[in-house]
Design a protein that fits this description.
transmembrane, mainly alpha, Integral membrane protein, 2 strands, 132 residues, membrane, transmembrane helix
Length: 132
């Protein structure tokens, strides 16, 4: 366990808020977003469902004064992988979003990459180990 710096806790909280809004939108508005972005409804709904669990985890981490370093590293690596995966999805040909869909995927990939970087910086500011 490490003491979570204020910077780390705020970066995690911002991620939880952003992810929570996306989770609700994609879970309950998948059909509307599918039509708006020309993306598969199932992809959006399943993404939303995943983000519900992710939001709970990241929100829980943000609320704790000390956090398990490996769990925070998992969030950082997961965010970095999500960023790369989102861009790879556009180039894969597996989906054919319209311009609005492409912009949405790129925007959320950038935001997720920023969260990964902020959380990594926050983790480095939190290196003091808490005695168990």
């Amino acid at each position: 366990m490490i003491d979570a710096s204020t910077f780390l806790r705020r970066a995690l909280l911002a991620d939880a808020i952003f992810s929570g809004v996306a989770a609700l939108g994609f879970t309950f508005g998948a059909s509307a977003f599918a039509a708006l972005f020309n993306l598969p409804e199932a992809l959006l709904r399943e993404t939303g469902l995943f983000l519900i669990a992710y939001t709970a985890l990241v929100g829980w981490l943000a609320a704790r004064p000390s956090v398990p370093k490996p769990l925070v590293l998992l969030v950082v690596v997961g965010n970095a992988a999500w960023t790369v995966g989102s861009i790879a999805l556009l180039f894969s040909g597996a989906v054919s979003p319209n311009i609005a869909g492409e912009l949405m995927v790129v925007a959320q990939a950038i935001a997720t990459g920023v969260f990964a970087e902020l959380q990594f910086v926050g983790l480095r500011k939190s290196e003091r180990v808490v005695a168990a």
